[in-house]
């Protein structure tokens, strides 16, 4: 395993926190935690609208021959604000399932003090530590976007690492196989998919939420009356440049109930192999609410708990002599019981 990137994470974490010593940390009314893939990141698509009849669902038959199933997910969380920036934590998780056993690896948490002065330097340093491509034309993230972009870099490293440790398996990603976005350069995702195919792996990407519509309806509503397990192929999706689709897009309904998900499968894999990959997934992994348990565990294990947030705040408070203060809730202060405050607006 090439540990260059996580080592760089540690070095930059320590370096950034040293510059925040003896300052105050202002806590949020509600801690904001972000999964790496957000619905707002999904680019616009042009989808065929003239549909003759209804797509015929592809019925799936579970294949129980033993296949390794593996998944990756990352998350970031804002711990508070200083007078010059924000303190954030990033963590990633890999999950493997072989037979009836699950194994996991957690990387992090890495705690950073991100400021307007250092955010470009930190992001570029992490990018240079592992990824060869650094596009000067690529828009640099602002201070609030930087933690998610850093988590995305960690996720890409974990994906590459996972692909190199698994052979002939199923690799599950959280999100879609859309490239050409600020988070996912096309050459980067192409290299990941190429490495997966070279190891005999098939990449399947599940999107928890999507804005993709067909004939005006969300694609995930297309299988509401169909008997699971089944999938429907969505044809002629044309992303708006510079984005590009590196996967075939399906709607997957793998168990009974109302849940269905957008499923992207590597385009370079033959169609029959794509269908076989989904059949091997439902024959080897526990599927509940049409979602694979391996990917669910990856999300759960990279998510920060309330106790972990308290522990990280305690660590930076004592290690770097930071004074923690509560931020005034101006809505409550000005409007009393009629002020819903920050936590209410974030919940909405």
The averaged pLDDT comes out at 84
Helix content range of the residues, please? 25-40%
Overall geometric form: globular
Low-confidence stretches: 48-54, 344-348
Strand content: 25-35%
Indicate the radius of gyration in whole angstroms.
Answer: 22 Å
Number of strands: 20
Secondary-structure element sequence? HEEEEEEEHHEEHEEEEEEEEHEEHHEHH
Structural class: alpha+beta
What does the main sheet amount to? 10 strands, mixed
Give the CA-CA distance, first to last residue: 42 Å
Number of discrete helical segments:
9
**Number of folding domains?**
1
Q: Mind explaining what this structure looks like?
A:
The protein is of the alpha+beta class and 348 residues long. The chain has one domain (4-347). Helix content is 32%, strand content 29%. It has helices at 4-18, 119-130, 146-165, 186-198, 271-284, 293-302, 306-319, 330-335, 341-347; strands spanning 24-27, 32-35, 45-47, 58-59, 69-81, 85-98, 101-115, 170-174, 178-179, 202-207, 213-214, 217-218, 230-233, 237-239, 244-245, 247-253, 261-266, 287-288, 291-292, 323-326. Strands 2, 4, 5, 6, 7, 8, 10, 13, 16 and 17 form a ten-stranded mixed β-sheet that branches. α2 (119-130) packs parallel to α3 and α3 runs parallel beside α4 (186-198). It is globular and about 60 Å long.
